[in-house]
Amino acid sequence: MTATVKLPPYATIRRDEDTVVILDQRELPFAVRFLTLRTLEDTADAIRTMAVRGAPLIGVTAAFGVALALQRDARDAALDDAITTLATTRPTAVNLHWALARMRQVLAPLVPAERAQAAWETAERLRNEDAALCHAIGETGLPWLQAAEKKRAGEPVRVLTHCNAGWVATCGIGTALAPVYLAHQAGIAVEVLASETRPRNQGLLTAWELSVAGIPAQVVTDNAAAWLLANGVVDLVIVGADRIAANGDVANKVGTALKAFAAHTYGIPFLVAAPTSTFDPDCPHGGAIPIEDRGSDELTHAVVRTANGVTRLPALPDGIGTGPNPAFDVTPARFVTAILTERGAIAPPLAGPWCRSH
Ligand code: MRU
């Protein structure tokens, strides 16, 4: 058993008396700022505007949002309203619904006077559980890096990832980056290529958090993946997930599927790292996963993060129209080499009943 990694350097979410403090991801990696959430509305807004993001973390944040709501009003109608408000903030990541279902299961049977304290305790439990799940996912993925190290014979293992599925997106050491952190801790030389992840540039968060941990990381353009995979630059692709359908189709940040297709073409393992709370047993296949469209604003304007703050600059001249802006895409199960979970690795396509037991 590998020793626990001393990460994350900042708590992504924590309770502070009757408020919740989150790491504000909108200004990362240029500024480390924290945002205090006092109400249900603050929490819903933080998720919607992506001050907080990443499937496991938005689930835990929503749980804390229920606690914030119930400390003001814990009657049945308030509980229903809190859960409905939070459930409609972002549609794709199923962890949000999973966490809200856990909250309802615990809180609905209680009398209102008991609910606020139970909500705080349950949200804390989900947060701690997430940290443990991340570590277990890392343990599941570590053998892939050990095998790649042998093949590399002295050269660093190269991992390509997309979006940010590290500690910034969770309450622990991340999902896709958890095996990387454990490999680094085990003395394996590992380097990460972080694809930019337009239009919101979550790849910068990945490169930043890895460099904070002393792991070499370089940003590459999203469109470089096929060339990098074709030319032996990458040993493994590891990404996170927002929802995994019962047949093993995977929804993750838009651009993920293209990497999977290229990895399949060039014979590079394509690994998806996610806790089992990311499986949606009620969703038969990827076509049934609701895909969030974040509107035209992210295309008409570039959000530029600088040392002086966040600036919105026009990116298109007037008169040029925009198309859809899906925030996620679906990788068909046949392109996924393995799904790394806290319970071990699973090779898709999944037998439906496997994830029906959760
Ligand atoms: O829109 P985002 O930034 O919330 O999307 C996040 C992703 O797609 C991540 O890869 C996924 O949530 C896994 S995070 C551990």
Automatic annotation (TrEMBL):
- Binding of substrate occurs at R53, G54, A55, R90, Q202, N252, K253
Q: Give the family, as the similarity comment puts it.
A: Belongs to the EIF-2B alpha/beta/delta subunits family. MtnA subfamily.
Q: Which residues act catalytically here? A: D242 (proton donor)
Q: What is this protein called?
A: Methylthioribose-1-phosphate isomerase
A Pfam family matched in the record: IF-2B
Catalysed reaction, written as an equation: 5-(methylsulfanyl)-alpha-D-ribose 1-phosphate = 5-(methylsulfanyl)-D-ribulose 1-phosphate
Alphabetically ordered keywords of this record: Amino-acid biosynthesis, Isomerase, Methionine biosynthesis
Q: Which top-rank group of organisms is this from?
A: Bacteria
